[in-house]
Specification:
By secondary structure, this protein is α+β, with helices and mostly antiparallel strands. The chain contains 8 helices and 9 strands. The longest helix has about 60 residues.
Length: about 350
């Protein structure tokens, strides 16, 4: 039997080959789109979760600070560690925000938010069969952006602010769980991302602190050396006592009254000077003693007061790290300055509970 291959057979064979090639390419493109969407969606999910986690920690700090200012004035540190006595929420939050900006939180949040934004754009182009889940991702992205907006511009009353934060967090969590149906991310992946981000923030903070310390020590090194030398020589004197923290004191007048606790309110007269002898503050000159709580003063003062009986007058020598450390105070106290105070503990008020 003879088989004759005609031109028609070649045309049919070529058509079959082309059809198979088209089917293969369509399948391949569909597969590529599926992989691209899933991979990008997973990346978006992890980064959005990280943004919300960082935002949540900041917003929680805002709420605690806000609540504290309602109950009374509080001490709040700025980005350089300087303490400010705040009775107004806006002032207190401003200092908190400056700290988060300085420590790199805002930079990381903005960077990750942009990554999520670009991921959503790419996902939108290849969403195909993922139309429904894509809508959930878009909603989740909206919740994330709203939380970031509150981080950068907290507003409303404490109640409405807290309510809005809770509402957005609940919505984000709901949308996040809905995406688990097709885009699954393990707890370890979320955790690893969070750890890496906090490591980045921590390293940036340490780098900034180290850089500032090197610059300060180059500029104010003589203050550190002078303070250490003074304390070393002062400690040898018979009438000078050294507390475990390193604070030194000399009793000018012994008292036998009540010794305050950190939470105690006290009435004191005082005069503060730097090593050169220049006075930077004096209640004696103002003619009126000061009333304050022990836990609202610098660490060196706290350390002295909680060992000081009512009626005592001490001369207290405070190492720079227990005073204002690397912070400049006014025109007289330079960074890393040793401080010398005459403190007269007039009265220890009865604790209020």
């Amino acid at each position: 039997m003879t088989i004759t291959i005609t031109k028609r057979h070649f045309v049919i064979l070529f058509g079959i080959i082309v059809l198979c090639a088209v089917i293969f390419l369509v399948t391949k493109i569909s597969s590529v789109n599926k992989v691209d969407y899933m991979t990008t969606a997973k990346d978006a999910k992890v980064n959005a979760y990280a943004v919300v986690g960082l935002s949540s920690s900041i917003l929680s700090e805002y709420q605690k600070t806000w609540s504290s200012t309602i109950n009374g004035s509080i001490w709040v540190k700025d980005e350089y560690g300087k303490e400010h006595y705040c009775s107004d929420f806006n002032d207190a939050i401003s200092y908190k925000m400056r700290c988060f900006i300085h420590d790199g939180y805002f930079d990381v949040i903005d960077s990750l938010s942009n990554v999520v934004k670009e991921d959503l754009k790419q996902m939108d182009e290849v969403k195909g069969e993922y139309e429904d889940i894509h809508k959930t991702f878009v909603s989740m992205y909206g919740d994330m952006n709203s939380l970031v907006s509150l981080v950068k511009e907290p507003k409303g009353s404490l109640i409405t602010f807290g309510s809005k934060v809770n509402e957005l967090m609940m919505s984000f969590d709901k949308n996040l769980k809905e995406t688990d149906l097709k885009v699954s991310v393990s707890e370890s992946e979320f955790k690893d991302k969070a750890i890496s981000l906090y490591a980045i923030i921590s390293n940036k903070k340490l780098e900034k602190e180290a850089e500032k310390k090197r610059a300060d020590e180059a500029l104010y090194g003589p203050n550190i050396k002078a303070g250490k030398k003074f304390l070393a020589e002062n400690a040898k004197k018979e009438d000078v006592h050294t507390l475990p923290s390193g604070v030194q004191f000399k009793v000018l007048k012994a008292g036998n009254g009540k010794i305050p606790r950190e939470t105690s309110k006290v009435k004191v007269h005082y005069e503060g000077r730097v090593l050169s002898g220049e006075v930077f503050d004096s209640s004696y000159k103002r003619g009126e003693p000061a009333e304050l709580r022990v836990n609202q003063v610098i660490q060196g003062w706290k350390d002295a007061l909680v060992h000081m009986p009512e009626g005592s007058v001490w001369e207290v020598y405070i190492p720079q790290e227990l005073g204002y450390a690397d912070r400049k105070q006014g025109d007289i106290i330079e960074p890393y300055s040793l401080l010398i105070f005459k403190i007269e503990l007039i009265k220890v008020y009865k604790d209020e509970f």
